[in-house]
């Protein structure tokens, strides 16, 4: 994956995730969608940077051929990524929303479940259909 495709991949991932997670989080927490959008966009910006460097490292270790990756490797990829994110997201969410670390951890647990399945499915579909390459062919 070249740098342009990595940026496209990360941005597409985050935009779709925010469109799902902000309204659902608002319904669950009772917080305003505008407040959750600020948290979501801020964390998404961090996530895009983390995603970029994490995937470069992952590809160096496991190779560039993503289409042949097993489900086990995809699950390990997602678990490693989300494990790294938890160290930033929990204290940030607790601080910004004015909730306890425990409540932020509960909220994060919901996010982890969502993103575990979302990331696995998104990356599988992305690798299978490679929209960035399809766009380049049409150009």
From TrEMBL:
The keyword Cell membrane does not apply. Pfam families: BTP (PF05232). Keywords: Membrane, Transmembrane, Transmembrane helix. Residues 4-63, 69-131 form the Chlorhexidine efflux transporter domain. The chain crosses the membrane at residues 7-30, 36-54, 75-98, 104-126. This is Chlorhexidine efflux transporter domain-containing protein. It comes from Vibrio sinaloensis DSM 21326.
């Amino acid at each position: 994956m070249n740098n342009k495709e990595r940026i496209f991949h990360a941005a597409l991932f985050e935009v779709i995730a925010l469109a799902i997670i902000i309204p659902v989080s608002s319904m669950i927490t009772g917080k305003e969608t505008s407040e959750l959008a600020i948290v979501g966009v801020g964390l998404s910006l961090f996530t895009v940077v983390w995603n970029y460097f994490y995937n470069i490292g992952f590809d160096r270790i496991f190779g560039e051929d993503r289409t042949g990756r097993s489900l086990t490797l995809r699950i390990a990829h997602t678990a490693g990524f989300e494990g790294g994110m938890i160290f930033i997201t929990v204290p940030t969410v607790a601080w910004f929303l004015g909730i306890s670390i425990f409540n932020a951890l509960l909220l994060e647990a919901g996010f982890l479940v969502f993103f575990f399945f979302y990331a696995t499915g998104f990356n599988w579909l992305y690798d299978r259909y490679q929209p960035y390459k399809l766009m380049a062919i049409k150009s």
